[in-house]
């Protein structure tokens, strides 16, 4: 009897991992379901004594067991260049532990951060997080320590920790992988946050499109309740509204209201959930905290560049050969990620564009591939890191259609509270339809640029405010798709 | 009605129970009816308009029942880059009027698309043949 390790991450399951697990079990082997290593093109990945096989289909099972599956063998998984070249702080356990096993978690350094936090006390914990340089991983990049301190010193007997797990950006899956692969780490991070600011309760708001993450988190919350007590954690499920990933909209949703954006101020740190001071952080932010506390702020700050400290779990997605989760220190260039690590497109055609930061992120042409992964460097080229998702498109992509989709998506998901977003997205889509039909392209694109200016500065939140990024970057970097080259040639 | 009362009892009567209640109602009855909205409003001490407003805001809640089996196809950017738009056309053709083809924006499986979800079951690396088989089995 051999021990067969197969991930039970939703992505592995979607690729057939459950069927495979059953096939090995039926042949009398012990199947251990672990988190995913994050090499998605190899899922379902089968691990036997540290050696990996992938992507495996049920028909391969006997060959693997009989030792005749060399074509599928990738050698020792930990030595695979995709894994060996990463700096895994947040994803240190990825592929190695059983997600909801308290034993596995404790045996791999789990709860050490919480233990140290309890010894340090609130003020010192906040100082530690501040010193680590950890910035909000949801997209805005706001320093976590400063946010925590604001809540810590805010008056009020009731305070809350809210974990934003409404990961709706296409091209991102790091939150999902944390929740499905290492749920106790997130709970530990929340408990540390609770201790630091004096909050007794935390909510994890998970989107309904993630049923596997919801089930894992609910199980983990129950299993760990005595360990994090008196801190309490509750899982809440979203209802299919993208805009609820915006923090104030998420708070309204948690309170049982329409997920409409709230005007700021007041900041959630002053008046958040139920009107109480609230820390609202992304999954990756909170998941980085146990490392910061157990290894010390300096150990985290030692990684990164400029004001972007630590690591970013980059998500390589879309039409890419080697897609998956790649955690690395800030500073790596976009081109290295897409071409060297991602291996170019899955279709084998040339890369046309990559969208960084989800549906509200800019499209980058290969000419900008030397941009380093860093909050400030991306801002300098009119883009954003967002949640660290990268979607690759090959040369069959029509960038005018992608720009139109950005408006269409904004129109579908707008909460309707502010006019630039609600109306602007619809008018933008209509105007781009005219451009696509070849109707007065230049004049209409001028209108689109004006509209984007209004949306960028007049919208209440990032949905309307950032939709101009994909639209304008597509127009700027790929003018030929908007009929502009033809117009110039005619002059 | 007994089932609705059970759902209401299980969630308490604070306003923040509204979404959890609606999730259970949608799952149990396949939609959120006018009568149900009235009962929920009464239970949470809210106006019917407030409850209706929440029901209409979220994509997951439906006011009218649709008993057809459904498949959710992801049509967000990452799946687009891997051919979801052509797949959606093929899926609609196979589905006809018998199966509902819904759009979902992102299932978080963005490196192995095009993807779909049926109930809580996820499927990746779809092509025309695979999606036709999934729809046929519904």
UniProtKB/TrEMBL annotation, chain A:
Names of required cofactors: FMN
UniProt protein name: Formate dehydrogenase iron-sulfur subunit
UniProt-listed InterPro entries: NADH-UbQ_OxRdtase_51kDa_CS, Nuo51_FMN-bd, Nuo51_FMN-bd_sf, Nuop51_4Fe4S-bd, Nuop51_4Fe4S-bd_sf
UniProt-listed PROSITE patterns: COMPLEX1_51K_1 (PS00644), COMPLEX1_51K_2 (PS00645)
Domain of life where this protein originates: Bacteria
The keyword Repressor appears for this protein: no
Domain NADH-ubiquinone oxidoreductase 51kDa subunit iron-sulphur binding: 400-445
GO molecular function, one term: 4 iron, 4 sulfur cluster binding
Signal peptide span: none
Listed Gene3D superfamilies: 3.10.20.600, 6.10.250.1450, NADH-ubiquinone oxidoreductase 51kDa subunit (3.40.50.11540), NADH-ubiquinone oxidoreductase 51kDa subunit, iron-sulphur binding domain (1.20.1440.230)
Protein family per UniProt: Belongs to the complex I 51 kDa subunit family.
Pfam family, one: NADH_4Fe-4S
Keyword list, A-Z: 4Fe-4S, Iron, Iron-sulfur, Metal-binding
TrEMBL record, chain B:
Sorted UniProt keywords: Iron, Iron-sulfur, Metal-binding
MF terms (GO), sorted A to Z: iron-sulfur cluster binding; metal ion binding
Gene3D superfamilies xrefs: Glutaredoxin, NADH-quinone oxidoreductase subunit E
Entries under SUPFAM superfamilies matching the protein: Thioredoxin-like
InterPro entries per record: NADP_DH_HndA-like, NuoE_N, Thioredoxin-like_sf
Alphabetical list of Pfam families matching this protein: 2Fe-2S_thioredx
PANTHER family noted in UniProt: NADH-QUINONE OXIDOREDUCTASE, E SUBUNIT (PTHR43342), POTENTIAL NAD-REDUCING HYDROGENASE SUBUNIT (PTHR43342:SF2)
Name the UniProt record assigns to this protein: Formate dehydrogenase subunit gamma
Organism of origin: Novosphingobium fluoreni
Lineage: Bacteria, Pseudomonadati, Pseudomonadota, Alphaproteobacteria, Sphingomonadales
